[in-house]
Amino acid sequence: MRSELVYSARVKIKNNFLLAATVMRAVRKLHVSSSRTEDTLNKIFEKVSEGGFAHGELPEVTPPPPIDMLVISPID
After folding, report:
1. pTM reported for the whole predicted model
2. Where are the domains of the chain?
3. Which of 1, 23, 67, 73 is most buried by its number of CB atoms within 10 A?
4. Which whole number is the average pLDDT over 36-51?
């Protein structure tokens, strides 16, 4: 059952790291000690799959500047 929840949440947040970070933060904030952690986790995955707890767009990744060719002087 949880694999279905993860898959449906993965449709909303395609980046695996971002999905895991979002779910971990939400579980830490919303977990009540009198309930099972697994139940809280399942609820969070359901909410993410419905569109809640989604982060905004990821920033555009800029490529690093090119490295000039290294000039090695010949050994005399």
Report:
1. 0.64
2. 2-50
3. 23
4. 89
